[in-house]
Amino acid sequence: MTRIAETAFLKTVDLGSIRAAARVLGQDPTGLSRRITALEQRLGAKLLDRAGGVTRPTARGQAYAERLRAILDQFDALEAEVSGENVTPTGILRVTAAIDFGQEFLARWLMEFRRMHPGLDVDLILASGFVDFGANNIDVAIRAGALPDSSLVARKLADLPRVLVASPDYLARRGIPETPADLEDHEFVLFSDRNRSEPLTLIGPDGQSVRVRRARGIAINAVRSAVAAVVAGQGIHVGPLWAFADQLDRGTVKHILPDFTKPALPLYAVRQPSTVVPARTAHFIDFVSEKVKGVPGLTVKP
């Protein structure tokens, strides 16, 4: 079954650009455009509207894309069943995650996973923001926080509690805050310079939210560097418990205002929807769901 033109059409619909689709598929944009034109001529229907420099499906093209995707998913499922691809992890596993979490955990987890499955190759893409699935052929994304509405399939792995911390040296110099209002007289280690103008919202023991201004301090947009700044006595920080678990155990940082918390962030493994899930994707998500259980500072519900 020849699917080059159909695949080119679907990828163009996904990415909104023939040039972007050609780049992902490793094809020449002109040749890819000709294949889609030939497909339109064969069907006797205009599938894409290319006016105004923007490529979008026509009404008939959108309907065709939805039906075609379902048919190709079934075909892929049949091939995977016959070839055994849905049983044994093979091919290239492409994973993306935030830089800090990826460096701390995912890189070594992927090396362990590859030792378990020697027929597998791995691409790990670490970024400060969400990486586009279609443009990068991503199999699995590890994402924290609320997910945008989409057709992607998400499996919750854990919750990421966040804590207020400071070094004993800093607290000895500046005093220990006893109420959230006391925080306004302190310096902070911020994760972004935007935090200088954004109040910190904490949830108290009665469930009421408290907003605190935090204008002064140092801003560092990397978790491990922020940890180092806190340990060095640069100020108070609100950050992920997993990043400070060791320091809290050693006493190099102290947990302050424990009755006031910042809501935990959910951690997800996200994949594209598919009738058949490749073994490399399914096995890796199962693998990560077990690995997070051993991470201090993550909350995993049974």
Automatic annotation (TrEMBL):
Q: Which family does it belong to?
A: Belongs to the LysR transcriptional regulatory family.
The record's section on InterPro entries has: LysR-type_TF_proteobact-type, LysR_HTH_N, LysR_subst-bd, WH-like_DNA-bd_sf, WH_DNA-bd_sf
**Which keywords does this chain's UniProt record carry?**
DNA-binding, Transcription, Transcription regulation
What protein name applies here?
LysR family transcriptional regulator
Q: Which GO terms describe its biological process?
A: DNA-templated transcription
Q: Name one Pfam family in it.
A: HTH_1
Extract the GO molecular function terms from the UniProt entry: DNA-binding transcription factor activity; sequence-specific DNA binding
- Occurrences of domain HTH lysR-type (ranges): 1-58
